[in-house]
């Protein structure tokens, strides 16, 4: 699900759209007839956040202009935003 948040980058207000993908449990073998109780057959995939869009207050796309370090900071802020929504019970 794509989510939006507003934050600042070096004093510039931006709107960030990000996609949160929940963690996925990898496939497990069966054990004693119980599906999924056996050994792990595929690795688990961790939850992930991907920044899809960063726009300034004029609506101009900026994602291609940002350094990786700034994008990493935005991912951290997106995690904080997402976790805050979960604590407040928002979907």
Outline the secondary-structure elements.
Blueprint: E1 2-9, E2 12-21, E3 48-56, H1 68-88
Antiparallel strand pairs: 1-2, 2-3
Can you walk through the features of this model?
- By secondary structure, the protein is an alpha+beta fold.
- It has one domain.
- The chain has a three-stranded antiparallel sheet with strand order 1-2-3.
- The termini are close together.
- 8% of the residues are buried.
The overall pLDDT, averaged over residues, is: 92
The string of secondary-structure elements, in order, is: EEEH
Rg over CA atoms, rounded to whole Å, is: 18 Å
Number of helices, where a helix is a run of at least 4 consecutive DSSP H or I residues: 1
Termini gap: 9 Å
Q: How many domain modules? A: 1
Q: Spans of 5+ residues with little confidence (pLDDT < 50)?
A: none
Question: What strand order characterises the main sheet?
Answer: 1-2-3
> Per DSSP, what share of the residues sits in E-state strands of 2 or more residues?
25-35%
Structural class: alpha+beta
- Helical proportion? 10-25%
